[in-house]
Amino acid sequence: MFNKLEDAINWIVVQQKFRPKTSLIHVKKAFDMLSLDLSHIKKVHVTGTNGKGSTCMYLTKIFVDQGLKVGTFMSPYLVSFNERIKVNGENISDDLLLKHINLIYLVAAKYKDETKETLSFFELLTLTSLSVFHELNLDIIVMEVGIGGLLDATNILNYDASVITNIGYDHMKTLGNTLEEIGLNKLGIVKEHNHLFTTVDKSLYDLFNNYVKDKNAEIMIIKEEDIKILSNLPNIIEYKNETYELSLLGTYQSKNAALAIEVAKFILPEITHESLNQSLSLVSYGGRLEKVLDGVYIDGAHNTHAMKELINTLHSTFKMYNINILFSALSDKEPIKMLEMLEGHVKSITTTAFPDTRYESLASLPFKFEENPKIALENLIKNKSEQDLVIITGSLHFIGYIKKEIIPYLK
């Protein structure tokens, strides 16, 4: 048991990060030890290669604005560990988080005594969130998948609605090397008689339709042609002949918002266009083309799929600016491919380092390199003109480090 939240968090983060899994039996056993009845709570499950977090935040804001008590489970975090569990859109309090990590600590010890096995970091975190949500007697919970879907710890529940944002190349060692393999893993969140909402690419329509049919489930595919982008700055879209203003920037946000609209209508059939538009225009979510200083933005693009979307946004939302990139990434996220994609679309690229065990030096690559990210950012800011923007990207872990450790000293 822990008296300080720092000690509790330190315990949970040092647990095994990844372990081979062939089923969810072990997580379900640990969940059963908690004796939580969540059957009365509405549940939404969100997976996909990119856009999960934004979709979760859109849904959270919509539900909160409708007067519902809402729990949201997300990952990773940018600045504070508490960002992972939200109550009515706000980060969980230190006291509540400490209380429930202590509860899970006891369950983990009991589980180890009975099975001689340990639970992973993400499994423990998922159980912590569910313990919190049960105590608060919420109306609805929005759960973001950690990796994949089929064998993700969040998949131990039955959900009212499932969401798959898109399918791209990421976590291939775990999910497979083709879009079809990755798609099948994420489709693992779809259960019998479930309702799936997706903006997946048309090349995967057959795979999705056949899978859902086999599950006797329902599917709604939102197609690219269903959405019109009326303005990039501000971000205004037309969807099903109705106009919505989105507070989050980026062309890719149009699909995330459309998913949130459809899921909200499914959960709350009486919700009005006015209510949806109001909520979508007021969503706040860090690290997604977030302005952190004058002319400086951070964006969490951390794989080739997300980088393609960021480049599209550079040519639309920021087409009137010269873009200077500050880049760093984890070694398992194809940093060279992401950098090659950016070349030719931006004015300059500077690579840098940051403290993470999965970071490997980018110094040998044919790009300007500055080891110290604070110096790198200061130089970019000092040399930029009024027609220049600095965009910091490549990794959610990297931009989180920049936002927490460097930006406060530059304001």
UniProtKB/TrEMBL annotation:
User: Which residues does the UniProt record annotate as the domain Mur ligase central?
Assistant: 46-263
Q: Which SUPFAM superfamilies match?
A: MurD-like peptide ligases, catalytic domain, MurD-like peptide ligases, peptide-binding domain
Q: A Gene Ontology CC term for this entry? A: cytoplasm
Alphabetical keyword list: ATP-binding, Ligase, Magnesium, Metal-binding, Nucleotide-binding
Q: Which Pfam families match?
A: Mur_ligase_C (PF02875), Mur_ligase_M (PF08245)
- Which one of the record's GO molecular function terms can you name? metal ion binding
Please state every residue range assigned to the domain named Mur ligase C-terminal: 287-395
* PANTHER family found in the cross-reference section: DIHYDROFOLATE SYNTHETASE-RELATED (PTHR11136:SF0), FOLYLPOLYGLUTAMATE SYNTHASE-RELATED (PTHR11136)
User: Know the name of this protein?
Assistant: tetrahydrofolate synthase
What organism does this protein naturally occur in? Acholeplasma hippikon
